[in-house]
UniProtKB/TrEMBL annotation:
Organism field: Sulfoacidibacillus thermotolerans (Acidibacillus sulfuroxidans)
Keywords on record: Hydrolase
All residue ranges annotated as the Isochorismatase-like domain in the record: 4-171
GO molecular-function terms, A-Z: hydrolase activity
Name of protein: Isochorismatase-like domain-containing protein
Keyword Hydrolase included in the entry's annotation: yes
Length: 180
């Protein structure tokens, strides 16, 4: 298993209209494309990881952002139909990874999991492009992984932030870009 698909923060709070911190239409537009990418990755035998914010109610991050993705609440759940996919295919190959910082590698077993599977390449997708996707791509780059991005599978609070982060990943992290 050489490739991992890292799906970042596709939770109710970040995607649903009545979520706590939604990316709006841009976020909703990538749900089905990500489901397709996840299905393809699953069929190909790639490692699929849903890395999601799962905060304590008094997390210091809430000094910066509205309260969101509190562990155990609906807001922290994967958005449908990704939640259904996860419920159906949860296994050694399809995992959920709770995280508390932007970077999915920070104080999580992610690096260990990738090492165990012999992963060399990570495809990062989800939200927000310039925050958690970027921070996780940076974490992957620091650890020597080839980062792959598909801008059509990421979304941000603004198109400007999305564009900037895509270019940063391409130019600074040498991410391989799969679409425009
Ligand atoms: Zn958060």
């Amino acid at each position: 298993m050489q490739r991992a698909l890292l799906v970042i923060d596709m939770t109710y709070d970040f995607i649903a209209d009545d979520g706590a911190l939604p990316c709006g239409e841009a976020g909703q537009k990538i749900v089905n494309p990500i489901l397709q990418a996840v299905q393809t990755a699953h069929q190909n035998g790639d490692f699929v990881i849903f890395a999601c914010d799962a905060h304590a109610i008094d997390d210091k991050e809430f000094q910066l952002w509205p309260v969101h993705c509190v562990a155990g609440t609906k807001g922290a759940q994967l958005i449908e139909p990704l939640n259904q996919f996860y419920a159906t295919y949860e296994s050694d190959q399809v995992r959920y990874l709770p995280k508390t910082k932007y970077d999915a590698f920070f104080e999580t077993p992610l690096a260990m999991w990738l090492q165990e599977k012999g992963v060399q390449e990570v495809l990062v997708c989800g939200v927000c492009t310039s925050i958690c996707c970027y921070a996780t791509a940076l974490g992957a780059y620091y650890r020597g992984y080839q980062v792959v991005i598909d801008p059509a599978l990421m979304a941000d609070l603004t198109p400007e932030a999305h564009e900037f982060a895509v270019l940063q990943m391409e130019n600074v992290l040498k991410a391989q870009r799969l679409s425009n």
